[in-house]
Specification:
single chain, 581 residues, mainly alpha, two-stranded antiparallel ribbon, two-stranded parallel sheet, elongated
Length: 581
Amino acid sequence: MKLFQDVKISRQSSIWILILFLLAIFGISSRIWLSEDSYISFRYIDQLFAGNGLVFNKNDRVEGFTHPYWLFLVLIVHSLGIHFHQGSILLGFLLILSGLGIFTYLKLKKGYLLWIFPAILVSHEGFRDFSTSGLEFPLTFFLLSLLTWLNFEKKLDSPFLLGTIISCLYHTRPEMGLLIPFFFFWKILEERKSPNFQWIFRFGLAVLIFAVGYHIFRYAYYHDIFTNTFYAKSGSKSRYYDGFKYLFHFVYYSKFTVLTLIGFVGYTVYSYFHDSRVPELKTLPWRELFLSAFVAHYIIRVGGDFMGFRLLLPYFVIALFAFDQIVNQFFKDRLTPKWQFKLNLVLILIASFLILEKSNYPLVKFGVVNERKAYTKGVYSGVKEIVSGIKHEWFLKGLEYKDLQKCLGEDEFIITNSVTEAKCLEKGVGLGYFGVASGPDVILIDELGLTDKDIAKSGKKSVHDRVGHERSISIEQVIQKKAIFCSLDDERYDRIMNTKYGVILRLNRNFLASLGPEDYETRIKFLKKLYSELKSGSSPEDKKLLARLQMLESQSGESIENLPIQYEFDPQRYNKEFCWQ
């Protein structure tokens, strides 16, 4: 291959590369899963193929994802006939292995013979978990490998290519938008005595096309400048305490990295003061180290995430490769082939042990969740079953609501997953698995506001105020959204209108008639009696429930007092009591 014509690969290096790639394939394939969050994006693909556009809920343009360029890649694969479930796994493998290939090429070209970077990476819990999670990390990793290649090949002076890559990174991981001003001002400072205006123009052109261009599409299509999740997650709030916990969690479960770092850095620092054969400090990868610290600081400032490893992984990759460079520069001329072999053997043996060892990464630690364990433990018998499709209880629950909607034939079948303030679903469900399973005709209102502009921009804080879960929806908002099911936080009403799917809020007589004549009559009798008692009641609970029932009347266009006890309906059209069984 032309790419490798300028690279000499020894037999020993070939063996190490082969072993490391086999470890990568095994390590990643043994941790295959599809995250709940990835299925939020996949519902957009479902809606697009259903003819509703790139939306989460039909007739409601809200951008509830943060990785449009990753979504477009999965969309392309899905349009080629490979279902997004298997397609995202395939894409993950291809992009991760391609990125590893580029990093390997760069190491070989520089003559770096210690395989620290790949050994640590392929055995890292976070790297393995998010390589095939259906989320954006594979594309992020691949783009970072291209960015590193630009740096190594001294092609940062190719401004259009640089601008294109970091713009794509920005629309794959939002905080990577910080790379745009970072590289721009770094270049300006480097050439402050004689600014290169041609470089500035070409860099700006790439950013205009690939970064600003998508913002223009977003504003035209979704009528927002930023993704809706930015507003839902209070993107400007500082949460350093949570952020440092998130960082500590990452470090705590990266012990191989930490021990390797301590060992090699300790020796190289010792050598720096006791051996003249060391590179000058100015040759070290300061830009990469500063870049990883700069963006990681932003992640820490906003509190990290509830999902272990995910947000810090890209900057871990940058810092790890920079560390690999530093160590290899220090050891390049002082290690004999025999010692190179010994050190590489130790690295690969440790990596192999960590991959084969049963994971001790717990479900929750320091408030951070092991998402893979949360959604796969006790659900699947093995990787093959995971690849075949989702079997989580939320997915199965979504299928039940899909069947109900189809059976009733309701066009405006609106439900919400709220369980925090408004108790609408008994156990609660996520947006992803449930959303895809329930189908494009079920309108799902997210209590966190990730896919709902009103909730996201309401400024209303969740009682939990958990990182990434900073909004909640009130009962009044649920009623305004015309949701079909939710508790009114009053046992008297809930007992009358309860079903296996939830407490009915929709008081439309045609909808209620679907319960069947006997069920309809019984519920309406008790509802009228309750309404009469509330009107004459004086307690705060009576007044609150009455106000909520009046809101329901307004939304449904029905008066409880005027609802007929024996409603004359067309059995063929309305008698669908079997749907509720």
